[in-house]
Amino acid sequence: MKEARLTPLGEGRYSLDGVLDFSTVNRVAVGGIALFKRDALVDIDLAGVESANSAGLALLLEWLDVARARGARVTYRNLPDSLVRIAAVSNLATLLPMASAIGR
Length: 104
Hints:
The protein is α/β, with parallel strands linked by helices. Helix content is about 40%, strand content about 30%. Strands 1-2-3-4-5 form a 5-stranded mixed β-sheet, covered by helices on one side. Helix 1 (about 25-40) runs parallel beside helix 2. The radius of gyration is 12 Å and the shape is globular. The termini are far apart.
């Protein structure tokens, strides 16, 4: 199984790659939380996520909650279809700050 990895791209931008499931999200959760201590604006591109389940959605919601508590803002780009579907079925899609792949 491929691990999840959060990679800095510069200027508050990051990429999240790999598999987001119950066995991998804990490893990237803490690293993601640390982002909101450094950056007021965080942009996370999920184009490299190979697969994700509800644990991946919980991770994104946790990061969103931490960011708001610290006065930071997070935007997610290129969410995999699996996460979009889970969020829609769970009535959580409107909570996720999603952006298009173009612009910032």
